[in-house]
Write a structure and sequence with these properties.
Chain lengths: 207, 596
């Protein structure tokens, strides 16, 4: 034991061995990267929305010489998007509990919803009442919905891959955190999908 | 950094060809077609293959983890993937030139010139896809750098102790995240107009050509700051080091950097003053453009005050800093002139503008780049660069640069337009053109001296030691060159200038496992240790993914079917990349612990 007269020495080490090795939510670095990805893609959507409204100012009629896109499949898809939030939320909730069965079931249902949304999207393309080569309006509508379809397909594949992993012992630790982050990305796909819906189904009737 | 520097040299060769062509009237060295390709390739190479990859990505990837006290950059595989894509984009662009399909529509590829009606063939498509390659690459690195800065700082390095260079890298990363999508949208829509017959920029079908300019410059002006702020970051670091005192006005500089990031997004229309915009827009964007002087001036005055109150050591890197002060100041002053609509309209598309942006970009990026290279050369190589050769390099380059580009102001004021492959003898521009071209000889000689210095010093330079400049940054606390894991023990800090302020027995981090690549994740604001993370090991999958993505990008220059046909290999390689391998779950000595 040291004497009271000895100068106080600072500890030479900061021991972090007891720190956790898996983090969920905003403490996870992949979560932060996912936020940045969503910012990038959100910016791309915002610029396409701006393009849409910019081109609107270049035309007296809107849609110019076309019927607005038929509502049926788009409305159905909007419902699918809304309801799909539930399995995504379940996955996000079950993952930190290490409830692998719950995560697997949630991913399975989420994949089914993503698949349904993708199939409905194919029908949506046929109900746009225009082709991309018709005019600038048609080009914008096709690119908007095409961009979102790319996100939808990406998310479907990612969910299927996570679902496949969930049937193996590898669905542990950071993989569970990835499943939770996948739900965040699904929310992003839903929000942007609904915004695209408002644009191409709503503003074509209101503007 | 090495790759970007090679493209700088290639871009320089193109610049020399331009000056050679313009040295006399009606010169037949190059015809208009080749000249158009050469000046387009020069601009595109310098901006997309050199300036951003060098100043943002190259320096950032090297120095940010070291300055943070981190063992590695966040997401190293994404970082590798980004590098491969950058190389892919560069090969596509230069492959185009070498096969006589080099882009010939200017570095910004304005429509309608670059549209399907006026640019048949694939030259403009090559430009568009080069943009996709390089911007995806920059975005990937922006995510890596921002995450490293926010989550991998050494314990104790709170936000208000963060080196200014890290602040600037963080602001630039965020600017990249919000600016690069605009050019990707612009070039993507251009490609769609050309490839599948959309009409975004076709006025006959409800499209608009100015839409392209808005999208392009919404990226293009923040791009200026994406190039300049890394230079300013280097200057702040060096001024502090060689003044032997803490930087004057840390907080105003940080606020200025953040403000520059914001204001940079509100001035893009000043590139479009000659397009017939409403007067109100012109007034607004004039005011916004002039406003950028405030944060830039604040940084300038803080550097001057640091030098004034410090004990200046005029070492080789500082010489380049003073070169920056002089050159960038002139560029800034002509920028203030151009922000005024009447002046802008008068000199629009003349060599005055060429002179201005070379003063800004070479002053704001190239001079700080050489300052930074000489400063961190001992850290990168373990040896000092030769100071005498470095001074020759500086003076040759500085004199040559000013001969060339100061002269261009006068050529612009005498009405010489940009992008013309020749001019008539009756224009009386030959004398000034000869003077401008003669500066290239000095700059080339300077660069040759630099290359000789690098090759000589890498092998025979004086051994540097850990901290040859006596700087305060964490990067100087490790060996030169640093080991692959950067720090044997992750450091902690208790002040803004750790190597100047921290006590000798400042704690180091222990408890990270050495049998796997374990890293420490700290809090974004106060840098308290939060949890441990595991970096992935080396993998071939990012390279394979970059190959398949590149194949899809290149294919889509020629046919839209490349997208559906290219997607399955891309998906397969991405799954290969992300599929978990090895022992699972990650073994922990005392059981896995979680934080929610």
């Amino acid at each position: 034991m040291g004497s009271l007269n000895e100068p106080v020495r600072r500890p030479l080490t900061l021991d972090v061995s007891g720190l956790p090795s898996v983090a969920f939510g905003h403490q996870n670095t992949t979560w932060l990267a996912n936020v940045f990805y969503m910012a990038i893609e959100g910016m791309m959507f915002a610029l396409m929305f701006a393009t849409y409204f910019y081109l609107r100012t270049r035309s007296t009629n809107w849609p110019p010489g076309h019927l607005p896109p038929t509502l049926k499949y788009g409305a159905l898809n909007a419902v699918v998007f809304f309801v799909s939030i539930i399995p995504a939320w379940i996955v996000k909730r079950r993952a930190p509990e290490r409830n692998r069965i719950g995560v697997r079931n949630g991913l399975l249902v989420l994949a089914l919803f993503a698949l349904a949304a993708t199939v409905l999207r194919i029908f949506e393309f046929s109900a746009l009442n225009c082709r991309w080569t018709d005019d600038a309006y048609s080009s914008t509508v096709w690119v908007l919905i095409g961009m979102h379809s790319g996100h939808l397909a990406t998310e479907l594949i990612e969910t299927l891959v996570l679902l496949a992993i969930s049937f193996t012992p590898k669905m542990e630790g950071t993989r569970l955190a990835d499943a939770a982050i996948n739900s965040d990305y699904w929310y992003f796909v839903v929000v942007t999908g609904l915004m695209v819906d408002v644009l191409i189904y709503g503003t074509t009737r209101l503007l | 950094m090495v790759t970007a520097f090679i493209f700088f040299l290639l871009g320089g060769v193109l610049a020399a060809m331009i000056r050679l062509q313009l040295i006399r009237p009606e010169n037949s060295l190059m015809g208009p077609d080749l000249y158009n390709q050469v000046f387009t390739m020069h601009g595109s190479t310098m901006i997309f293959l050199f300036a951003v990859p060098m100043m943002f990505q190259g320096f950032g990837v090297y120095i940010v983890p070291l300055m943070c006290g981190a063992r590695n950059i966040a997401f190293p595989r994404l970082n590798a993937f980004s590098y491969y894509l950058y190389v892919g984009g560069a090969l596509v662009l230069w492959g185009g030139l070498l096969t006589n399909t080099g882009p010939d529509v200017g570095w910004f590829a304005y429509v309608p010139l670059s549209g399907p009606a006026y640019s048949p063939g694939h030259r403009a498509d090559i430009w568009s896809q080069m943009i996709t390659f390089t911007e995806v690459s920059a975005l990937g690195v922006a995510i890596c750098l921002a995450t490293t800065i926010l989550r991998h700082r050494a314990p104790g390095m709170t936000l208000n102790r963060m080196p200014i260079l890290l602040w600037e890298k963080l602001v630039i990363s965020i600017a990249v995240i919000f600016a690069m999508p605009a050019v990707m949208i612009a070039s993507g829509l251009l490609l769609l107009d050309r490839l599948v017959g959309t009409h975004f920029f076709n006025p006959a079908e409800g499209g608009d050509v100015l839409l392209y300019q808005h999208l392009f410059w919404f990226f293009g002006h923040p791009e200026v700051y994406i190039i300049f702020l890394p230079g300013a970051a280097i200057i702040s670091t060096l001024v502090e080091c060689f003044s032997r005192r803490r930087i004057f006005g840390y907080t105003p500089i940080v606020v200025s950097v953040v403000a520059t990031g914001f204001i940079g997004f509100s001035v893009w229309v000043h590139h479009m003053f000659a397009t017939g915009l409403p007067q109100l827009s012109e007034s607004f964007f004039t005011a916004a453009s002039l406003m950028i002087v405030i944060p830039t001036g604040t940084q300038f005055f803080c550097w001057v005050a640091t030098l004034w109150y410090g004990r200046l050591q005029l070492r080789l890197p500082m010489l380049w800093c003073f070169g920056f002060f002089f050159v960038f100041l002139i560029g800034g002053l002509s920028g203030v002139m151009l922000a005024s609509v009447p002046v802008d309209l008068q000199v629009h598309d003349t060599y005055f503008v060429v002179a201005h942006f070379h003063y800004v970009l070479i002053g704001g990026a190239l001079f700080p780049m050489f300052a930074g290279i000489y400063f961190w050369f001992p850290k990168m190589t373990g040896r000092m660069a030769n100071a005498a050769l470095g001074k020759w390099h500086f003076w040759l380059f500085f004199i040559g640069f000013n001969i060339t580009f100061f002269t261009l102001h006068f050529l612009g004021l005498r009405g010489m337009p940009r992008r013309v492959y020749t001019y008539g003898p009756d224009m009386h521009w030959q004398g000034l053109n000869i003077l401008a071209s003669s500066g290239v000889v000095f700059m080339t000689a300077g660069l040759l001296v630099f290359l000789a210095n690098v090759f000589h010093s890498v092998r025979a330079g004086e051994i540097a030691g850990n901290n040859p400049w006596g700087d305060a940054g964490l990067e100087w606390s490790t060996s030169s060159p640093p080991p692959p894991y950067n720090f044997l023990h992750v450091p902690t800090v208790s002040g803004r200038d750790p190597l100047w302020e921290d006590p000798p027995d400042q704690p180091v981090v222990v408890g990270l496992r050495d049998d796997i690549r374990e890293t420490l994740v700290t809090h974004s604001l106060d840098a308290d240790p939060q949890h441990k993370d595991e970096d992935p090991g080396p993998s071939i999958w990012p390279f394979l993914s970059a190959l398949t993505v590149s194949a899809a990008f290149v294919g889509s220059i020629f046919t839209p079917w490349a997208v559906p046909l290219g997607a399955p290999p891309v998906i397969a390689t991405l799954i290969g990349w992300l599929w978990p391998r090895g022992q699972s779950p990650t073994p922990q000595p005392a059981g896995e612990s979680w934080v929610r």
